[in-house]
Design goal:
Blueprint: H1 6-18, E1 24-27, H2 34-47, E2 51-54, H3 63-70, E3 76-78, H4 86-91, E4 100-105, E5 108-113, E6 133-135, E7 143-147, E8 150-154, E9 168-172, E10 176-181, E11 187-192
Parallel strand pairs: 1-2, 2-3, 5-6, 6-8
Antiparallel strand pairs: 1-9, 4-5, 7-8, 9-10, 10-11
Helix pairs in contact: 1-2
Length: 193
């Protein structure tokens, strides 16, 4: 039986209450860093997220990271990155993540891929629409832009940031997308829909 500290229990209760709000946390490029993944789950519970999307490069070679994923308190929807293999998922006894996903989240269609093989839905033979959120990782550099009515999000890396940025993640809801520093919560980018 799992034992929960009062603070973890509190955040889990708050999370259940706030899930109806439809907030997602978006991450990428964890590369086996279990401390970074723990921070992501902590942030997600703090803001009442209903889902975590991961744009690949988990690092399933780390047994501690696998344990966190097997006991996760929230849905963790992932795609495979260039550093992930189907054999790693199999060895970790986790469902093998696809190379891309397209699904509805709140009022937005999202397309999520690592960005090494596919960058756009059209690259995968799918159509896209205005208001779609296209999520990639791979570069370890956060970015947020809009073109042709579509939103392009790269949350950066929670473990190995590049460029002038620190470890970062994003939040997504029906109203806006934000990219934030993992440690401080400082907003890096923000865009309303």
């Amino acid at each position: 039986m799992k034992k929960y500290t009062p603070i973890i229990l509190f955040f889990q209760i708050v999370s259940v209450i706030m899930r109806a709000m439809g907030i997602a946390v978006v991450v990428s490029d964890i590369h086996g860093d279990e401390k970074a993944l723990e921070s992501v789950f902590r942030k997600a519970l703090e803001i009442g997220a209903s889902t975590i999307f991961c744009a690949g490069d988990l690092g399933l070679w780390n047994p501690a990271l696998i344990s966190i994923l097997q006991c996760r308190p929230l849905p963790f929807i992932c795609v495979r990155g260039n550093c992930d293999s189907p054999w790693d998922y199999d060895a970790a006894q986790l469902p093998i993540a696809p190379l891309y996903r397209s699904q509805k989240f709140g009022s937005h269609e999202i397309f999520i891929t690592h960005g090494d093989r596919f960058s756009l839905p059209e690259d995968a033979g799918l159509s896209s629409e205005k208001g779609m959120v296209i999520i990639t990782g791979h570069t370890h550099v956060p970015s947020l832009s809009e073109a042709d009515g579509r939103f392009f999000l790269n949350p950066g890396s929670v473990s190995r940031p590049r460029g002038r940025y620190r470890a970062s993640y994003a939040t997504l809801d029906d109203e806006a997308v934000s990219v934030l520093e993992l440690e401080t919560g400082k907003r890096i980018f923000y865009r309303k829909f």
